[in-house]
Design goal:
heterodimer, A: alpha/beta, Rossmann fold, 2 domains, seven-stranded parallel sheet, five-stranded parallel sheet, B: alpha/beta, nine-stranded mixed sheet, two-stranded antiparallel ribbon, 7 helices
Chain lengths: ~300, ~250
């Protein structure tokens, strides 16, 4: 029997993991358990919930979450643990794999299980290639956002597990509240994203206006949220930031480094505006305008505003 | 202050091409120190420059991987440990042997890694090392401050930033905005060859905890890029109109 545990602190991903777990467990005659820590969230769960509680809060501490999942996995003898591929998820998966001596398949989709091993497909070399990978059970799989459709389910029974001796080794304080939730980008149907082509932070108002005119959300490539510090990390789209899959991704003044493209390649339509005809973004775009964004964006706004 | 930094000698993903069957041409492909690892090396050297002590750079590999170690030595690391492996190992085994080498070559107060390798970007080796070595882990640091027996870092998570504190020894992964890695001078490159490099075989590191099972890569194929690549050039107003028309036709706006 192949029971499957799931965990993600991200509610959207938690729903997608439920679908993934159902698809694996159904074929193998196993059950699905969603691991929650501290409290059960309102998000609809599939199957049963294993709620792990300790004297202190567990949420947000990767080491304690890994211990909580390890404890839940031990009690259920579950050979597969699905974890959402977020930064926290990666930290949890690494700890858990060592603590429970499980293999890790990272960033896998199209998961299949045959009783003794789990297979999946992942992107490698910044998404230029796909690799089919296989891990013997027991196995942890990190599942990226968008690999499965979240489905509504009926919450099952909640079983509480109380653990002792959980004490955090890392003290955490929130440094800055995000300007908005990264979920805005992950679920957006239209994204207008800005890159290095913008000369000043104030000029990003153009992108904001265009996003608003199109009814979409604003995003950015890494330099704007890191080196330049114009925007928070919740705006950063790419390999090391948020993965997005909108109907329309409009990249403005973004050259199209591999690391950025890795985060947008599941978009339905990609459009780009760049003054450099040789910019790699045009190689992965459906539509491109070669031109000065300071002329093209106002032109787009004018047309949209005049309709 | 004894600092360790772990680096990966990775295929240069920007230069990697596929053959006629769509598989990557790994034979003879260019390899280099994984992009983000250069930030980890830089941070290690800066920590030594302000706090004193030594920096040891470690890498596990099998072919040409000492090149990355030599580059790290040229950037300012004091000594290198080259763990030689005949074949590719998965992350669990890689982290295990690195942890064993860290135990053998240590003790270390601070162990630095990058946020993820540029070829796979799993971000797993850092937390795995922390678990093997029973140490605190700080992930995705964009600013690292070392105090008296403590480390404070500003970390960038998916949706928020945090300030975190931990006692040393600890494992810390850094993101690329933590610093701008230096480029070694010709003199530093020449001097690097005189710095000590110890080679360790996997067999000499193995104990009863060694992972047995491993993840296998069954097949690697090129990801298809099916994009229309329609380009508009000319007057901005015309191009803008054409783009909007095309997007409407696609039904995405």
């Amino acid at each position: 029997m192949t029971d499957v545990l799931t965990f993600s602190e991200n509610p959207q991903l938690a729903g997608e993991l439920a679908t993934a777990a159902d698809s694996i467990a159904a074929g193998a005659g196993g059950r699905v358990f969603a691991v929650e820590v501290d409290a059960v969230r309102e998000a609809p769960a599939h199957g049963s919930v294993l709620l792990v509680k300790a004297a202190r809060p567990i949420s947000g501490d990767s080491e304690l979450i890994a211990s909580a999942i390890s404890e839940a996995a031990r009690r259920r003898a579950s050979p597969i643990v699905l974890i959402g591929s977020t930064k926290l998820g990666r930290m949890v998966a690494g700890r858990l794999a060592v603590a429970s001596r499980m293999c890790v398949l990272a960033d896998v989709r199209d998961l299949k299980v045959d009783g003794v091993r789990l297979t999946g497909v992942r992107g490698v070399y910044a998404g230029k290639f796909n690799a089919k990978v296989e891990g013997p059970l027991p196995c942890v799989a990190l599942v990226p956002q968008g690999a499965y459709e979240a489905t509504a389910g009926s919450p099952g029974p909640v079983e509480e597990i109380t653990v002792e001796g959980f004490s955090p080794r890392v003290k955490r304080t929130e440094a800055r509240a995000p300007q908005r939730s990264a979920l805005d980008l992950r679920t957006a149907k239209i994204i207008v994203a800005a890159g290095r082509g913008f000369k000043t932070k104030e000029d990003l108002a153009l992108v904001e206006k265009l996003a608003k005119a199109l009814g979409g959300a604003m995003g950015a490539s890494r330099p704007l949220s890191s080196d330049l510090g114009w925007l928070g990390e919740e705006y950063h789209i790419g390999l090391t930031g948020v993965y997005v899959r909108p109907n329309l991704y409009l990249a403005i003044g973004i050259s199209g480094q591999l690391q950025h493209v890795a985060g947008i390649k599941d978009s339905k339509v990609i459009a780009a505006i760049n003054k450099d005809k040789q910019a790699p973004i045009f190689q992965v775009a459906d539509y491109g305008i070669v031109g000065d964004l300071y002329q093209v964006v106002p032109a787009l706004l004018k047309i949209l505003g005049s309709e | 202050m004894n600092i360790a930094v772990c680096v990966k000698h990775a295929i240069d993903e920007g230069e990697l091409r596929s053959d006629s069957s769509g598989r990557p041409q790994l034979q003879g492909a260019l390899a280099k120190m994984s992009t983000f690892d250069r930030n980890a090396v830089e941070e290690a050297v800066r920590a030594r420059e302000s706090k004193g002590g030594t920096v040891t750079v470690l890498s596990l590999g099998g072919q040409d991987w000492k090149k990355s170690l030599k580059e790290a030595l040229a950037m300012g690391c004091d000594r290198a440990i080259a763990i030689s492996s005949a074949g590719d190992l998965d992350t669990l085994a890689t982290s295990y042997y690195l942890s064993r080498a860290l135990q053998k070559g240590g003790p270390f107060d601070l162990i630095l890694v990058s946020e993820g390798a540029s070829d796979t970007y799993d971000g797993l080796v850092g937390p795995m090392l922390a678990e093997w070595l029973n140490l605190p882990f700080i992930g995705y640091a964009r600013k690292v401050e070392i105090g008296e027996g403590t480390v404070r870092a500003e970390v960038a998570l998916d949706e928020k930033a945090e300030v975190v504190d931990a006692a040393l020894p600890a494992v810390v992964s850094v993101v690329s905005e933590v610093n701008s890695p230096r480029y070694p001078t010709l003199l530093q490159i020449m001097q690097a060859s005189k710095k000590p490099m110890e080679e360790l075989a996997l067999d000499s590191l193995r104990d009863e905890r060694a992972p047995l099972a491993a993840v296998k890569v069954l097949e690697v194929t090129a990801q298809p890029v099916n994009r229309k690549r329609v380009i508009y050039e000319g007057a901005p107003e015309e191009s803008a109109q054409k783009l909007l028309d095309a997007l409407r036709k696609e039904g995405v706006i």
